[in-house]
Design goal:
Blueprint (H helix, E strand, L loop, with lengths): L1 H8 L24 E3 L3 E3 L2 H32 L15
Antiparallel strand pairs: 1-2
Length: 91
């Protein structure tokens, strides 16, 4: 049983509060840590903001790609009608 706990403590990746998620600068115990999305720590507001902007750009590209692929699917559907497949539960 001891070997399980010893193996569990050893890890390849550093703890998320040990370094900035963007620039990898070591986070000090005596300085502010700026958090984003619960498990991403940053050394400064600037690093945090850069990550937020990067994520927003990725999300925008994903939404754009998703909407263009869904519009091409609707062109291939029967008479261009939308079929809803959700289930409504009423109690």
């Amino acid at each position: 049983m001891d070997s399980y706990y010893v193996g569990f403590v050893v890890r390849d990746e550093p703890h998320f509060l040990e370094s900035c998620s963007l620039c990898r600068k070591t986070l000090s115990l005596n300085s502010d840590i700026f958090m984003y999305r619960g498990d991403m720590a940053f050394c400064s507001q600037e690093c945090r903001q850069e990550q937020i902007e990067s994520d927003e750009k990725k999300a925008k590209r994903w939404r754009k790609a998703s909407s263009s692929s869904s519009s091409s699917r609707s062109k291939n559907s029967v008479a261009g009608k939308t079929v809803r497949t959700e289930t409504l539960v009423v109690s």
